């Protein structure tokens, strides 16, 4: 992959997130540092008849949000997540909103199911008695609704696009945003993803027997599937020189993105890891970085037996001997799998790790998988103040793979 | 100009596969567009989802349209949109003169990206799955239905069927999605991220979806004793005809095309998109100035003055407010200058399913577009009249437009190959 304008470096100047660890970046980072899974019993819907009973559910929103955001009560849960994360990211970036009509802002979002939770409520009523169902409940059901809600609220008049490639959606949206900023298509990109818990995906993944009955255990010997999460994450991207010119402090540099497809199977990854490796290699090439310059990886790490094994093969292909010793960060073990948002929130986690110079751990007991000799960060944060660059991977249903490369912002002289 | 919209390298449409109410293939679509007669048929209303007196017709895929394009195993396991996607892709590659089964094309397959837009995803599977989960038992959920209920199933199935190992992107941006997919695909080629792209759009129109669109007041209704017609830009327009189908364009670079000695249908000169934040989540806004700015920028990237556009292939579909906004955007972009001829092929193909995208490519390739249903009574308040069937010279530059309910908009500028 060739950069559109290799000299136009792109800064991350704002981040925002909501997930099972709380509303906002402070609770996210505190929870990640603690390494304690936010996965547990949940209340969103009656799951007594489902096979499993855990998720990283987002707690009720701060009451102030309904006052800040017009039309809050008409938004779907996924829309609310998206809007909160976008507002936090824009505020972090120090950008004034609503944006000017000619500001050159674009929104690039990923979502797997959009307002499916609300759609389920509608369908349950509609299919029982079509006369009684409230159509208004269906309005935010579309997959593009979270991204559109963000654009509408912020007054965005530039490009708005929603990517829905299952678990790679958020990462692919970020890749598109990177290309748009580099090329000058937009001056600022609001990029991220949002998804909420819903019965369709909960039952669907359970039907595939790919959900663990306990909090997920990526890369561990006893791993038995994923855990669900929900939430949103947003990054503000802009040309580095623009950020510096307006006095913004870059949180990281978004160095590259790559994508590929396994072209192998709808749900099972290519066990050789070739497809995922192609995305990683494309992202490194796009960043102009050699594999040897990567200091840690935020892995997709769902905790399913097949996915983790395929990802390990991909890491071996790209990083060779270093793969086993390179620190791996497994964010899903703490916040669950946010599906269409996972690539975005794991990108935020990667930026936070680079920014703080330490990698978040995962606390648990259990045995390492001898077939997957990875160096997961366990128990305590791993200081890594010298970390220069990191990769975040997203490997989705349908074989859609994406990889993102971020590098530490070391000042204008670096 | 460089960049996703500006296409610093030439990008060509070298093949086109289509399925829809016209059957399968470009010839059927071209004939339907030249005739200018809507292809709508009665929708199955037996499930009881529809309102009495509501819309009854849609542009649906005729039986047998997929024959010969899918293996029995593929037909068994794929959702309707996935079938449409794989069939249209194979058709597009054949149109381009590319043998997808040829081992000598392995490098081409490895460098092939897939960009597919869908407004609603696999609706049949989603509906069936929800019934299982909500009314039987969550454990009754079928894994095969689930894996084919995700929005990216069509793109994934194209990749699996054709060994396309480049990026796999699924874009959901309602009515603007197809042109965003075409533009995104072109950008993948121009930036060197893919050697070949299969870009397009698929959607199915289920009775449930049709009934819900009608309940929102989006669909054309029959007037007393009359037909359900979309009537884009017409005085009596009252909604669109829903449609279904698939359209997949094969995109290649000039170098790729030359290397294999193929021919092109059209060239993509530029694309662009914008958003109207004044739009409601399911409706249309009043932000024509911002959208017109986005359209002007798209034309500038193409190096085309408004006066240089020979034909607009509009996404207008008969929506009262949507067609008004489209007309306002075009008039603002042209700044008072006379508009070129405006075609509205969704009156023939229906909304959704890629018919509009395919019509734009065919128009750029020189296929004539016929009269627009309802064009005999244009809306005097819109300041434009859609094609009435008068013969036009083959266009050199075609502008495809698509405004989406909810605020998104996209444009693609096509030129002769």
Quick description:
Chain A is an alpha/beta fold and 414 residues long.
Shape of chain A: globular
Which structural class matches the secondary elements of chain B?
alpha/beta
Annotation field: number of helices of chain B: 14
CATH architecture classification of the largest domain in chain B: 3-Layer(aba) Sandwich
The CATH H-level superfamily of chain A is Thiolase/Chalcone synthase
In N-to-C order, the SSE pattern of chain A is EEHHHEHHEHEHEHEHEHEHHEEEEE
Number of DSSP strand runs of chain B: 14
What is the N-to-C order of secondary-structure elements of chain B (H for helix, E for strand)?
A: EEHEEHHHEHHHEHEHEEHEHEHEHHEE
CATH homologous superfamily grouping of the largest domain in chain B? Thiolase/Chalcone synthase
Structure explained in plain terms:
The complex is a heterodimer of chains A (about 425) and B (about 425). Helix content of chain A is about 30%, strand content about 20%. Chain A has a single domain, classed as Peroxisomal Thiolase, Chain A, domain 1. In chain A, strand 1 (about 10-20) and strand 2 (about 20-25) form a beta hairpin. In chain A, strands 1, 2, 3, 4, 5, 6, 7, 8, 9, 11, 13 and 14 form a 12-stranded mixed sheet that branches. Chain A has 12 helices and 14 strands. Chain A is globular. Chain A is an alpha/beta fold. In chain B, strand 1 and strand 2 (about 25) form a beta hairpin. Chain B is built from 14 helices and 14 strands. Chain B is globular and about 55 Å long. Chain B has helices at about 25-35, 70-75, 80-95, 105-110, 125-135, 145, 155-160, 175-190, 205-215, 255-260, 290-300, 320-335, 345-350, 355-365, and strands spanning about 10-20, 25, 40, 55-60, 110-115, 170, 195-205, 240-245, 245-255, 265-275, 310-315, 340-345, 395-405, 410-415. The longest helix of chain B is centred in the N-terminal third of the chain and has 17 residues, at about 80-95. Chain B folds into 2 domains: about 10-265, Thiolase/Chalcone synthase (Peroxisomal Thiolase, Chain A, domain 1, 3-Layer(aba) Sandwich), CATH 3.40.47.10; about 270-415, Peroxisomal Thiolase, Chain A, domain 1 (3-Layer(aba) Sandwich), CATH 3.40.47.10. Chain B is of the alpha/beta class and about 425 residues long. Chains A and B meet through helix 4, helix 5, strand 4, helix 6 and helix 7 of A and helix 5, helix 6, helix 7, strand 6 and helix 8 of B.
């Amino acid at each position: 992959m060739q950069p559109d304008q290799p000299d136009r470096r792109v800064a991350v100047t704002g981040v925002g997130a909501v997930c099972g660890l709380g509303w906002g970046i402070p609770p996210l980072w505190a929870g990640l540092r603690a390494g304690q899974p936010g996965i547990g019993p949940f209340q969103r819907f009656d799951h007594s008849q489902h096979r499993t009973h855990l998720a990283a559910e987002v707690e009720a929103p701060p009451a102030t949000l309904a006052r800040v955001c017009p039309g809050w009560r008409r938004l779907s849960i996924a829309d609310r997540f998206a809007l909160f994360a976008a507002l936090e990211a824009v505020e972090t970036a120090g950008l004034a909103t609503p944006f000017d009509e000619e500001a050159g802002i674009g929104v690039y979002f990923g979502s797997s199911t959009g307002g499916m939770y609300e759609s389920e409520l509608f369908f349950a009523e509609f299919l029982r008695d079509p006369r009684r169902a409230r159509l208004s409940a269906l309005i935010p059901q579309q997959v593009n609704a979270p991204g559109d809600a963000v654009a509408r609220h912020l007054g965005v008049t530039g490009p708005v696009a929603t990517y829905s490639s299952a678990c790679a959606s958020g990462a692919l949206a970020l890749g598109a945003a990177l290309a748009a900023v580099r090329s000058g298509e937009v001056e600022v990109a609001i990029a991220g993803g949002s998804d909420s818990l819903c019965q369709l995906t909960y039952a669907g993944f359970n039907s595939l027997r790919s959900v663990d009955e306990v909090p997920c255990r990526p890369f561990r010997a006893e791993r038995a599937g994923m855990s669900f999460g929900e939430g949103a994450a947003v990054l503000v991207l802009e040309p580095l020189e623009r950020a510096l010119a307006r006095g913004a402090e870059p949180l990281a540099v978004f160095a590259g993105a790559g994508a590929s497809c396994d072209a192998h199977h709808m749900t099972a990854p290519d066990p050789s890891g070739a497809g995922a490796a192609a995305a990683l290699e494309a992202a490194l090439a796009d960043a102009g970085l050699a594999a040897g310059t990567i200091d840690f990886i935020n892995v997709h790490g769902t905790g399913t037996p097949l996915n983790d094994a395929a990802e390990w093969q991909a890491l071996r292909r790209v990083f060779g001997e270093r793969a086993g010793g390179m620190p791996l960060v497994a964010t899903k073990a703490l916040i669950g799998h946010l599906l269409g948002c996972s690539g975005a929130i794991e990108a935020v986690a990667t930026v936070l790790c680079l920014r703080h110079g330490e990698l978040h751990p995962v606390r648990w007991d259990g045995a390492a998988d001898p077939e997957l000799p990875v160096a997961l960060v366990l128990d305590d944060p791993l200081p890594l103040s010298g970390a220069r660059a990191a990769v975040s991977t997203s490997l989705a249903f349908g074989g859609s793979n994406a990889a993102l490369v971020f590098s530490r912002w070391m000042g204008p002289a670096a | 100009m460089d960049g996703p919209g500006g296409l610093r390298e030439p990008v060509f449409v070298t093949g086109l596969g289509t399925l829809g109410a016209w059957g399968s293939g470009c010839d059927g679509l071209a004939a339907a567009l030249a005739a200018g007669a809507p292809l709508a048929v009665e929708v199955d209303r037996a499930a009881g989802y529809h309102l009495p007196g509501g819309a009854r017709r849609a542009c649906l895929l005729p039986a047998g349209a997929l024959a010969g394009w899918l293996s029995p195993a593929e037909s068994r396991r794929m959702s309707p949109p996935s079938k449409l996607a794989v069939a249209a892709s194979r058709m597009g590659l054949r149109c381009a003169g590319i043998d997808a089964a040829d081992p000598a094309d392995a490098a081409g397959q490895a460098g092939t990206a897939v960009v597919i837009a869908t407004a609603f995803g696999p609706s049949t599977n989603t509906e069936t799955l929800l019934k299982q989960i909500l009314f039987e038992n969550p454990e009754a959920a079928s894994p095969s239905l689930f894996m084919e209920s995700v929005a990216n199933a069509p793109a994934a199935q194209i990749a699996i069927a054709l060994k396309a190992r480049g990026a796999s992107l699924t874009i959901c941006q309602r009515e603007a999605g197809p042109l965003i997919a075409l533009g995104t695909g072109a950008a993948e080629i121009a930036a060197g991220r893919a050697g070949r792209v299969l870009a397009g759009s698929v959607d199915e129109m289920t009775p449930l979806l049709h009934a819900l669109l009608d309940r929102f007041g989006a669909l054309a209704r029959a007037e007393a004793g009359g037909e359900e017609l979309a009537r884009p830009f017409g005085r009596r327009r009252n909604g669109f005809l829903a449609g279904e189908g698939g359209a997949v364009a094969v995109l290649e670079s000039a170098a790729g095309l030359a290397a294999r000695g193929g021919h092109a249908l059209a060239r993509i000169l530029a694309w662009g998109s914008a958003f109207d934040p004044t739009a409601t989540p399911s409706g249309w806004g009043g932000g024509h100035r911002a959208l017109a700015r986005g359209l002007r920028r798209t034309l500038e990237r193409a190096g085309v003055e408004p006066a240089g556009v020979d034909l607009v292939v509009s996404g207008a579909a008969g929506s009262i407010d949507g067609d008004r906004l489209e007309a306002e955007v075009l008039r603002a972009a042209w700044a008072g200058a006379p508009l070129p001829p405006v075609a509205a092929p969704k009156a023939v193909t229906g909304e959704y399913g890629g018919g509009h995208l395919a019509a734009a490519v065919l128009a750029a390739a020189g296929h004539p577009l016929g009269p627009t249903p309802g064009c005999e009574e244009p809306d005097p308040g819109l300041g434009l009249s859609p094609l009435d069937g008068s013969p036009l010279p083959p266009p050199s530059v075609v502008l495809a437009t698509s405004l989406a309910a909810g605020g998104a908009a996209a444009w693609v500028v096509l030129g002769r190959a």
